Amino acid sequence: MPTTATPGALSGIKVLDLSRVLAGPWATQMLADLGADVIKVERPVAGDDTRHWGPPFLKDDAGQATREASYFTACNRNKRSITVDMAHPEGQALLLQMAAEADVVVENFKVGGLQQYGLDYDSLKALNPRLIYCSITGFGQDGPYAERAGYDLMVQAMCGLMSITGHADGEPGGGPLKVGVAVIDVFTGLYASNAILAALNARDNARHGTGQGQYIDMALLDVGMAVLANQAAGFLATGQAPGRAGNIHPSLAPYQDFPSRDGNVLLAIGNDGQFARFCEACGHPDWAQDARFATNTARVQHRAELLERLLPVMRTRTTAEWIALLEDKAVPCGPINTVAQAFDDPQVRHRGIARTLPRQAGDGIAQVATVANPMRLSATPVSYRRAPPSLGQHTQEVLHELGLSEERIRALHAARAI
User: How many domains are there within the chain?
Assistant: First the structure.
């Protein structure tokens, strides 16, 4: 059930979601959370690949593991799932009918992969000129790599992210390291949803809207390069490629983890005022007056000397004691939590980050846990209308809305088109 009766910001927008795995579904979940009606089209029997990417698997009402992977639930909330075989002529006809009524299509097939089914942009644009069509691929629609398949791990490696993640060569555990989440896929989903919102505004804006849709070409590699952010900017400014430095920030100090008396603690000092207050609190106000440490630039240049002083001091208190000491002094300091500890954090619990949604699919899974959308809109809030669906849970419902009779739906089932 919705958490609010207020219409969502994208209420009335219809999205035909032909994507699978993570980047595309992340984008369409963003649109669904904002109120769009997202129809997720899946392969009959098999469904989205991530339904099988386990363990871990969802548990049924009796507490037993099912065959449905929890991965799928990360990015398919608020959607309706239908099963359609797009290789079947009657399946294609259904999708064309849906595309004719849609505002947005999102797909992540290989370049040109949907042309054979008449589901490419040019074909659908002729049918529906207002359509916004977003393609997500590894390397974009053109260029020497356009035909290659692209996955998050591959792009993390190619864009240089793994070269700046992890401990430096020669240190224990040194070497290239991927981020613990498929961040390129997630960022691509976020960029894609932003591009779709921009295209909707360009089409519908009351003063400048064109009334026409457009094509959006999203590439994981493009996104991977973009999210290098300050590291990319530093390289472009100097011509020097950054390397791995563990948890040390290349442009700030001290901004890293430290051993405490009972574990580890994080200091994230971003300006000279914070550093001065830290020095006062830990009993070394003279550090802030030392020319080597008085400014951030100096601290970065004399990082080794600073760490030589900091490390033994940081071991004198427990993590909790450091947090308590610095909390009221506006010095950023915190624990290094496990995921379990993060979900149990008082602030995380207060903000309602973990949500449980009922799933009325008759498949033995009564409810599904999900992570709240972090966008907090005051007038058109995110809603939680549906749990991530079971495979084909809404096929009959959606086809009825298209005007198909029960007899016609049974015939399509018999023909294995749905």
Answer: 2
The CATH number of whichever domain residue 381 belongs to comes to 3.40.50.10540
DSSP per position, 333-392: EEE---HHHHHTSHHHHHTT-EEEEE--SSSS--EEEEEPPS---SSS------PSPPTT
Per-residue pLDDT tens over the stretch 221-234: 999 999 999 999 99
Residue pair 15/39 in contact by the 8 Å Cβ criterion? yes
Residue 1 inside a domain? The answer is: no
Q: Which of 338, 365, 390 is the last residue of a domain?
A: 338
Give just the sign of the alpha carbon dihedral 51, 132, 96, 89.
Answer: negative
Cα dist. 92→114, 150, 398 in Å? 11, 26, 15
Note the residue count of the chain: 418
Q: What is the pTM of this model?
A: 0.93
228: DSSP letter: T
Examine residue 176 and say whether the peptide bond preceding it is cis (omega within 30 degrees of 0).
no
Judgement on whether residues 48 and 113 belong to the same structural domain of the protein: yes
Phi, psi for 105 (deg, rounded to 5): -120, 135
How many other β-carbons are positioned within 10 Å of the β-carbon of residue 138? 26
Residue 26 sits in the same domain as residue 160 = yes
The encoded tokens of residue 383 equal 């809603």
Q: Both tokens of residue 78?
A: 């608020």
Q: DSSP class of residue 174? A: B
Active-site entry in 33, 48, 120, 185: 185
Residues 51 and 177 in one domain: yes
SS3 assignment, position 38: strand
Distance of CA 229 to the CA centre of its chain: 17
User: Bridge-partner residues for 79, per DSSP?
Assistant: 38
Whether residue 238 is contained in a domain is answered as: no
Structural tokens at position 170: 């020669």
User: How confident is the model over 113-166, as pLDDT tens digits?
Assistant: 999 999 999 999 999 999 999 999 999 999 999 999 999 999 999 999 999 999
Q: Could you tell me the residue range of the domain that residue 153 belongs to?
A: 14-227+351-414
Nearest-angstrom CA–CA distance, 352 and 370: 11
Tell me whether the omega of the peptide bond preceding residue 55 falls within 30 degrees of 0, making it cis: yes
Per the annotation, the verdict on 85 as an active-site residue is no
What lies within 8 Å, CB to CB, of 37 at 6+ separation is 13, 14, 15, 80
